[in-house]
Amino acid sequence: MLCLGWVFLWFVAGEQTSGFNHSACATKNILWIYSLGSVKDLVLFCDLQELRKQDFSHVSQTSPTGGPAHTRCSGHENLAAVQWYKQPQHGGPLEEISRGSAHVQDKGVLQIVASRENSVSSYICRPRIRSPQDTACCIRTVLKVKPRRNESCGDKAQAEQILFLGSTGSIHCPSLSCQSDLQRPRMTWYQDGRLLRDYKENPIEMEAIYDFHEGLYVCDYAQSDNLSSWTVRAVVRVKAIEKDINLKPDILDPVTDTLEVELGKSLTLRCKVQFGFQKDLKPVIRWYAKESPREWELLESENKSTDSTAKSKVIEATTFLREVTWRDLRREFVCFAQNSIGNTTRSVQLRKKDGDTKEFDAFVSYAHWSSPEREDTGSVSEEHLALNLFPEVLENRYGYSLCLLERDVTPGGVYADDIVSVIKRSRRGIFILSPSYVNGPCIFELQAAVSLALVDQTLKLILIKFSSFQEPDSLPELVKKALRVLPTVTWKGVKSAHASSRFWMQVCYHMPVKNSSGFVFNRL
Prior knowledge:
Layout: H1 2-17, E1 26-34, E2 41-45, H2 48-52, E3 59-60, E4 82-87, E5 95-96, E6 104-106, E7 109-113, E8 119-127, E9 139-147, E10 160-164, E11 169-171, E12 188-191, E13 194-196, E14 204-206, E15 215-224, E16 229-241, E17 250-253, E18 258-261, E19 267-276, E20 284-292, E21 295-299, E22 301-308, E23 312-321, H3 326-330, E24 332-338, E25 343-352, E26 360-365, H4 372-377, H5 382-395, E27 402-404, H6 405-408, H7 415-424, E28 426-433, H8 435-438, H9 443-453, E29 460-465, H10 477-485, E30 488-490, H11 502-510, E31 513-514, E32 520-521
Parallel strand pairs: 1-9, 1-16, 10-16, 18-25, 26-27, 26-28, 28-29, 29-30
Antiparallel strand pairs: 1-3, 2-7, 4-5, 4-8, 6-7, 8-9, 11-14, 12-13, 12-15, 15-16, 17-19, 19-23, 20-21, 20-24, 22-23, 24-25, 31-32
Helix pairs in contact: 7-9
């Protein structure tokens, strides 16, 4: 019995590759009338489902003897499992269309790369897997290609059409652009090979446009003459986009008008610009060096797109100074951005950096014990955040130097003196706030830092809201004011732990900025 099964499979496979009697295939005539500059390719469907339902419009089914064929096509719902063939114009065996050919087949749809001339070609499709009774389960598509002779009617319906998201819209069949209003035939519409049963007219009218309306549309209608009847087919690619945003470019970076630099060092200037969506966007972004109102020097820059959405496009222009000179300190560097609405500029003045004597980029302060609630839930504690995650991300990933009391301060000194000393030697102070922190002795570290920051303009403080807390009445008034005005970054549990999370991006924003040579300067 097993041997008989193998013989049957061998017979079916051999029959698939050696050709078959295609004279009994149902026939469908497709007419493609193309215009110059229109979509180059056409698509054909293997309508086996329609054939099985015996509801195959405009199909003539005849047997080799001229009588009606007894079509058998049992239950082929998977249109992706079909094989296409091309029949040579001058006879001969069928040519199997493989995946490596010029034509593209996908999910039962064949994309034809047609020639630009009057031509007639035949394409045949049938299931890859068939039962022995499916002898006539195949469709022959006769494709006739001819150019449009009358182009005087204008380009009313294009082969590529744009719809605007959120608004009403219409999709027009390109092949009907020269038809009069009195010659509107009944239409058959497809989107990405799927029959649109609810649309029978031209054009398709839509009350609101969404993303899913985008795709490849095919429109069919019947046409006949004294000799034969044809299904006229046209293809239109539809794109759903945002409406034009009528705003000037928005310069996102640089955010400040001064930049501290070191003489003799290289410098990279970046200008990041957001352009609102426009259908025909032609963005311009350039760097200039300005010495006087009449002296502008165009600097060589490299532009690249960093982020694009349906509503906007962000482009970054980068210019490079090999060595910062005294002349550069007298010049003004201008980023210029322009679109069809207008232009925007942002100027940056270079300022010689006064070197500081800071040893650490940041001092990290936290409650030195975990609350029972944190230990019970198994979530990250203040201590783990300070001693593990901060060094892992800020030191190992971004190259900052941190001061951790247990790790970097030799024990044996006076606690208060040690705290004041390390804060003075740090550019930033990071304070992890929780109920344990504000109600414990560590609040002294924040109080000392606030007092020092009032006299040291290079010292900036960053608050980390680790968990919600209520300010105790005993909290010094100076600390209460600091809690309301200092920049605060909120810890959101496990999702903040990953090094690429928004939490770390916000922390790094408030940290000193490092240039390409590792030099640190204050952003704020």
